[in-house]
Every structure is written in structure tokens, then in C-alpha cells.
């Protein structure tokens, strides 16, 4: 499982979860704390958009978002668990990785990071604009 935090300019950071592990509220809270640190290095304020996965919407996670000062964008309660941004951010990556065999998690992580590093900055801006149109 890979969590990608990004904005209209770049990938902020990527976190890969090892095989057999799951994301729970405590793990997600730790990701949010790391995200806040990464954002502080790059930008003073960002809007935050997440899906409706239970650990993202848990009382603990929502309290952490509030504590960290994130401005959470609304997400329709009837939307699927898949974040709308996934359609724009991961579609090409899924196509590139399809059918490949990897011997270790590190190989998948390296290829994913290379993919995002190779993308032109307009890729992220265009994806954000598509996401904004869907939210209008």
C-alpha cells in the first residue's frame, strides 16, 4: 500500500506500507504528523483532501487534522472510498507497473519514486485542476 501526498507543484512525500500491514488511525496520525513537517519545509499552508476510509475519518484522525491546522476540503459522504485524485495521479503508474514482477518492496518503491520524479510539474497542476472541476 502506498500513500502519496502531493499538491499542484510536486510530490510532498511518499510512504510505502510493508506487506501484511494495515493502516489504522494511529498509523495515519503518524503520517499526518510527517506530512505537516514536510509541508512546513515547502509551503506554509495547504488545503487537505482525503477519502472516506474509516481510519481517515476516525475521531482520533480528525482531531489530529484539527490540531495540525489542516484545512480539510469537504468530501461527499456518498463518494467511493477511492479518492478522486487517485484517478488522475495513479492511472499511468498502474499501467506502467502492470504485469511487472518485483523481488522486493524496495524495487516497487524505487520504480514508483522514479515515475513521480520524471513527471513534469504541469502533471500535478493539471491533476489538481481536474480534481477541482469534479468538486464544483
TrEMBL record:
Gene Ontology terms, MF aspect: nucleic acid binding
Name of the protein this chain belongs to: Transposase
Pfam families the UniProt entry points to: Transposase_1
Entry superkingdom: Eukaryota
Organism of provenance: Euphydryas editha (Edith's checkerspot)
Family annotation (InterPro entries): RNaseH_sf, Transposase-MT_Hybrid, Transposase_1
